[in-house]
Amino acid sequence: MAEQERHISVWNECLRIFEQNVDPKQFAVWFKTIVPVSLEGSTLTLEVPTDFFRSYLEDAYLSIIKKTLRRVIGPDAKLLYRIHPVQSENPMVFTASHGNVPENKPVMINTFQASSNPGPFVFPGLTKVKINPRLNPAYCFDNLVKGECNKMGINAGMSISGKPGKTPFNPLFVFGGPGLGKTHLAQAIGIEIHDIYPDLIVLYVTGNEFKTQYMNAIHQNKLADFMAYYMRIDVLVVDDIQELIGPASQNAFFNIFNYLHQSGKQLVFTSDRAPVDLMNFEERLLSRFKWGLSVELSKPDHDTRLAMLKARCVREGVTVPDDVLELLATKIRSNFRELEGALISLLASATLCHEEITRELAERVTCNIVSEEQNEVTIDKVQEVVCEYFNITRETLLSKSRKRQIVQARQIAMYMSRNLIGGCSLSTIGMELGGKDHATVLHACNTVSDLMSTDKLFRQYVSDIEKMLVPVAR
After folding, report:
1. How many angstroms separate the CA atoms of 125 and 464, rounded?
2. pTM of the predicted model, to two decimals?
């Protein structure tokens, strides 16, 4: 291979990995348009269209880009752009939850007489009203802990906040299970936009509330006023849009969507499922949900759960022992809401009963929240499931074999032990898995995390094994 073509070959291999791990639509937008320029030693230079492109690429995909380059080029891999060097993120600050409540400025709303029967864009009358944005100041970006589970959503939200209605992410469609932070993220976008652009009119509403407002407008013969009200909004945040059921209310929303989108207004939606999985929605509305960016919020990993607990302790002004937080983060894995509820219950129990916050108290509190089976996850159980999955013996797993499959099985066992077993130190895990030290276990956990980000088949291994173990842990 000619030296001058090496950078093309290397970048094509990177693209192959990206394509396996990135949504096809996002891959086409953010990766296929990049042009490899040169590869000098371990430094790859890429050409991107704009500085905004470079900025978002770094924000949304920095982790997988770094891991992929290290995998393809080597541990010393470096990346340069033809635009500007990447700046580091600002440090996170946890803001108190009792901040100022955002308020919109008074605006002129078009009103109509019931008998006037105006056309859709005729504005015969005006009245001055104050629109309550209905934003909770506690749901700001500063109080939102970033992890692999929500990083893309937060980065997209920050981009939108800086240029509402002027980014490719319009609408932004955030979906995921309950308690994963959809409402927090959506409101954080509204709050941030309001802080940066106080003259913009921001409104947060749920899908069910929109439907109820529409029905009331019909019954009171004020549909024109209802439509005019929503057409004055600059940033519309609709939470739980899957509740917007009914052809009439969907038709009204369709017209509002079109008007706002064509006017360059920002739209943010949340749902408990992806647009493709929404039931009883008109196809023309579903197609518009897919115009911008769809982001899934997944279950938080152990490190993110622990960071959230520490952040909440800072906000509450309390000190909780690290081993107690570790216990909560290990036992409660489903979502942020249950995790936060467990912490508040623990603090309440300690305060009301005048008890010290200990692991024993945390055990008592969490047993009322998490129903556990008698057969709990242990290191032995992890080894048993991993051996069964890879069809190897325990002696082989604990041996010093350097065969790739055996090494990966051993590393997955260490990773699962750390993430699923509460209060189990790295040293203990290492001793139980072939007499390894804590540094080896930590390296194994990091390796598994990296491979999960870049290797689709390996990620499936980990997912399958976790599904075999999770029912035991619950």
Report:
1. 62
2. 0.57
Amino acid code (one letter) for 361:
L
- Assess contact for 132 and 104: CB atoms under 8 A: yes
Give the span between the Cα atoms of 444 and 451, in whole angstroms: 11
Coil/strand/helix, residue 174: strand
Domains of the chain, start order: 3-81 (3.30.300.180), 107-297 (3.40.50.300), 302-367 (1.10.8.60), 379-473 (1.10.1750.10)
Alpha-carbon distance of 136 to 190, in angstroms, equals 10
The contacts of residue 8 (CB under 8 Å, 6+ apart) are 36
Return the half-sphere exposure (C-beta side, CA atoms, 13 A cut-off) of residue 323: 9
**pLDDT per position as a tens digit, 309-361:** 988 888 877 888 888 888 888 888 777 888 888 888 888 887 777 778 888 88
pLDDT in the model for residue 356: 82
Say which residues have a Cβ less than 8 Å from residue 237's Cβ, sequence separation at least 6: 186, 187, 189, 190, 202, 203, 204, 205, 268, 269
Q: How far is the C-alpha of 253 from the C-alpha of 247, rounded, in Å?
A: 10
CA distance 286 to 275: 6
Asked if omega into 171 is within 30° of 0 (cis), the reply is yes
Whole-number CA gyration radius for the chain: 26
* Token pair listed for 180: 């994963």
The mean pLDDT of 406-424, rounded to a whole number, is: 84
> Per the structure block, which two tokens stand in for 469?
């173990």
Query: Do 237 and 186 touch, CB atoms closer than 8 A?
Result: yes
Burial string for 445-466 (b: 16+ CB within 10 Å, else e) reads bebbbbbbbbbeebbebbeebb
Calpha distance 148→339 (Å, rounded): 17
Q: What are the φ and ψ backbone dihedral angles of 111, each rounded to 5 degrees? A: -125, 155
Cα(28)–Cα(9) distance, integer angstroms: 19
> What is the DSSP-derived secondary structure letter of residue 138?
T
Quote the tokens at residue 244.
Answer: 């917007």
Residue with tokens 């096809």: 24
Contact yes or no for 188/144 (Cβ under 8 A) = yes
